Amino acid sequence: MAIMSTNMIGLIFANLHDSTIPDLTKMRTMGSVPYGARFRLIDFPLSNMVNSGITSVGVITKGNYQSLLDHLGSGDEWDLSRKTGGLQILPPYGNDRRRGLYRGRMEALQSVKRYIESNNAEYVLMSDCNVIVNMDYNHILEYHIEKGADITIVYGHGNYNATQMLTKTAFGVDSDGRINDVLINPEKEGAFNTSMNMYIVGREFLLDLITETASRNLYDFDVDVVQHKHNEFKIYGYRYNGYYEQIDGILSFFSANMALMNYDRRKVLFPRRRPIYTKVRDDAPAKYGLESEVNNSLVADGCVIEGKVENCVLFRGAKVGKGAIINNCILMQDTIIGDKCELNYVISDKNVNVGGYRSLFGTADYPVFVAKGSNV
Amino acid sequence: MYHVKKECVAMILAGGQGSRLYALTQDMAKPAVPYGGKYRLIDFPLSNCVNSGFDTVGILTQYLPLVLNEYIGNGHPWGLDRVHGGVHALAPYESSGGKSWYTGTANAIYQNISFIDRYQPDYVAILAGDHIYKMDYSKMLDYHKKQQADATIAVLEVPWEEASRFGIMTAGENGVITEFAEKPAEPKSNLASMGVYIYSWQTLKRYLIANENDAGAKKDFGGNIIPDMLKDGCKMVAYHFDGYWKDVGTIDSLWEANMDLLNPNIPLDLHDPKWRIYSRNPVMPPHYVGENSFVENSLVAEGCNIEGRVDFSILFAGVNIEKGATVRDSIIMPGTTVKSGAAIEYSIIGEDCIIGEGVYVGERPESIADKDSWGVAVVGHNINVPQNTVIKPKAMISENL
Q1: Cβ separation A36–B285 shorter than 8 A
Q2: What is the DSSP-derived secondary structure letter of residue B33?
C-alpha cells in the first residue's frame, strides 16, 4: 500500500446530509453524529484517510460545528497534529467574504480553493460523513490511475426502496467502469449502483473545475459535473463490494448501530491493523453491578449497569439503574436511566436523564427519540 | 537556555523491580504493571500530579524501562506534553565523572539535581511510582508552606499489627515528626509513610550532596536522608491522608487492590469526573457482551468480547472470553483469550496469553482442604497454556508450558 500516501490530500464534508437525520443534527454536524457506543461518524473517513497514509486533511464545515471542533481538537487522536499538513478545519467565510454558506459540494469546494492550492499533492480524496466503512483508499487511487480517470467515484450495489433512493445518487456504468448515466434522487424501487460519496480527483483538474463552475454559478457536484459532464470528462465508478452502512435517516441510523452486534461486521469495521480512531475521554472501564443482566449489547467505558440490558448500544458514561429493563435502545453519552425504568426502542441523545419508574416505548419502525439534555 | 521557573517539580521513583510480583514484572518495571482494567500503576501518581496542578515531572527509570518509556511517550495522555516542563523519563547516564546506576532513591535524585535546578523550584515532591491512591498534592504543598517545613511526609494510619511493614513516623499534636523508624520490630506509632514527600529544594539538595559525599551512608531516603535531617533538627511534619491507599508489593495485594474496585464500600472511585485517572487508551471498539453470556459485578474495558460467564472479575482491553468459558474472582490483563470450556478462578492472567480449551486455572479457597497450599494463581505475560492443562492455586507460570 506504500505507493502514494503523501501524494494525496483528504477533504471531508462534515455537514452534507445533515438534513437526513434532523433530530440528531439539530445541534451538530453529520460528522459529529455519535455512532457505535464511542465514535462519531467523521471518525470513519478520517481514520480511513490516516490508515491509507494521507497526512493532510481539510474538514469543510458549514454550521453547527461547535461539537465537531470539540471532537477533533488538534487532530492528535488521529495522529493528524503534524508539523506539516495535519488537520485543518475549513469553516465558511474562511478567506473570502463572498463565499459563505455554500449551496452544494461544488460551491463548498470553491470556498476552500486556497487550501487546495496551497498543497502540492497530485490527488484529492473527498469523502462525506454518511458512510460507515473501513476502506483502504489506495485501492481506489490505483484504479483511478490505471483508468486514467479525471474523476473516480466509489459506489456500492444494492436493492433499495423508493424512500431510500430519495437521498441517493445512482449511476449507470459501462463495461470499462466509466459512468454513462446519472440519476439523482430517483424515487423508485430497484437494484442500483449508488454513490458512497467518495471521490478521487486530480488536484489540478479539481482547481480548473472550481474556476470553471464558479464562473458559471454552478454549485452542485453531482448535477453540474457528474450528470452534465460525464460525456466530456472521464468519470469512472469504483465498485466497492465490502461491508458498509449508509445513513439516510433515523431508521438506517438505528439499524447501522444494531448491525454492530454481529461479530463479523465488527471484525471488518475495526480490524487491528486499521483501527478507527476517536477522541479519548479517560473513562474508567464499564462497571457491571451485582444484579446486572446484559445480553447482545455494545458497551463503552464509563458505563455503570445495574439493570437488565438487551440489544442495546451504550455510549460512554451511560448509567442504567437497578431493576431497569432496557431493550433495543441506543443510549448516548452520559444518559442516565433511573431505577425500575422500562425502555424499548428508544434513542436518547447526550445527557438525557430519565427519572426512576418511567416507561418509554417506541417501535422497530418508529423508535422514540429523546433530545439532548432532556429530563424525562 | 532559559527555563520557566516552577514552584514545585515532581520526581516519580519508577526504577523498582517489584521482585515479589515475579512473573508479572519479568518483562516490565513494577510501575508499568497493569491495574484496574485499563491503567498501569504509574497512572496514579502521574494523574495525581496533573490534577494537583504539577506540570513538571521527572520519572526515574532503571529496571526494564522499555514498556514504561513507550507508555509514557511524550506525556500526551496525561496532558504533560508541555512547552515548559512536562514529563521527562530520566534514566541513569554516563558523565565525565564516570557512569553509575542509581544506587538508591536518594542517589537517583542526586544524579538529577541538574534536571531539577533547570526549573529553579522552591519545592520538590518525591513520589513512589507504584502506589494506588488519589491525592491532591497541592493541598499537601499548602500545608508544607503553612508549617514552614523543610520536609513534609504524607502518612496514613495503618492497623498496629501491620505497622512493622512500613516506615513509621512519630509525630506530636502540631504535626512535627519526632522520630522515624524504617520497618520497626516494635512500632511506637501507627503512622506509616506513604512514599509521598515534599521537600524544600535547597535544603534537600544540601542533604543529597552531603549524603553522596559520605561513602558510608545508605543512598536512600529512609536509610539516611530522613534520619539525618531529623537528627539535625530540620522541621519535618506529617501530613495526614485518610483516603484509599495501597502498595501492591505482592501478588495477593495486587489481586486485592483490583478486587477493591468491585467493592462499593471501598473509597476509590475511578468514575469520578472531577479527579480522572488518565491512561494511554487503546484504540478499540466498545466491548460486546453476547447473547447467552453472563456478566455480573465486574469491570470490563473496551475491545472485549464476552460470550462466556464473568463474575467478580476485571477484564482489561481486548480480552476474549469464549462461549462456555468461566472467569470468577480473577484479573485478565489486555489482549488475552480464554477459550471455550476453560475455567479461571482466583487468578491473575498476564497480557496477551492464550488459555486453551478446557484449561483450569486456580481454585476457590473453600474448595481446598489444605489452606496453606492455597493462593492466587498467576500466569505471566505472553503465555500459551495448552488445552486441558490444570494450573493449581498459588502456581506461578512464567514461561510457556
Answers
A1: yes
A2: S
A3 vs B: CB within 8 A: no
**What band does B99 get if pLDDT is binned at 50, 70 and 90?**
confident
Convert the pLDDT of each residue in A9-20 to its tens digit.
Answer: 999 999 999 899
DSSP of B330-384: -EE-TT-EE-TT-EEESEEE-TT-EE-TT-EE---GGG-S-GGG---EEE-TT-E
CB atoms within 10 A of CB A121: 20
Find, among A268, A288, A270, the residue nearest to A278 by Cα.
A270
Q: Where are the alpha helices (DSSP H) in B162-242?
A: 201-213, 226-231
Q: Are A286 and B300 a contacting pair at CB < 8 A?
A: yes
Nearest to B205 by CA among B276, B110, B71: B110
Cell, residue A136 = 483502504
Do the Cβ atoms of B286 and A298 come within 8 Å? yes
Residue among B76, B271, B314 minimizing CB distance to A302: B271
A282 vs B279: CB contact, 8 Å cut-off?
A: yes
Inter-chain residue contact B287 with A286, CB threshold 8 Å:
yes
What residue type is B350 in one-letter code? G
Chain B contact for A75, CB < 8 A?
no
Does the beta carbon of B328 lie under 8 angstroms from any beta carbon of chain A?
Answer: no
Model pLDDT for residues B56-88, shown as the tens digit of each residue: 999 999 998 999 999 999 999 999 999 999 999
Q: Are B336 and B322 in contact (CB under 8 A)?
A: no
User: Residue A2: which pLDDT band, with cuts at 50, 70 and 90?
Assistant: very low
Sign of the C-alpha dihedral computed for residues A95, A101, A106 and A108 taken in this order: positive
Type of residue found at B183: K
Closest CA to A276 of A14, A80, A56, A78: A78
Q: Take residue B84 and report the three cell numbers written for it.
A: 515548559
Tell me, what's the pLDDT at A100? 67
E strand or H helix that includes residue A258: helix A250-258
Name residue, grid cell 459540494. Answer: A105
Measured between CA atoms, how close is A203 to chain B, in angstroms? Answer: 32
Q: Say how far residue A371 (Cα) sits from the centre of its chain.
A: 20
| C-alpha cell read off for B391 | 494450573
Q: Give exposure, A229-268, as e/b (b: 16+ Cβ within 10 Å).
A: bbeebbbbbbebeebbbbbbebbbbbebbbbbbeeebbee
Q: What kind and span of H or E run contains A151?
A: strand A151-160
Contacts of B284 in chain A (CB under 8 A): 270, 275
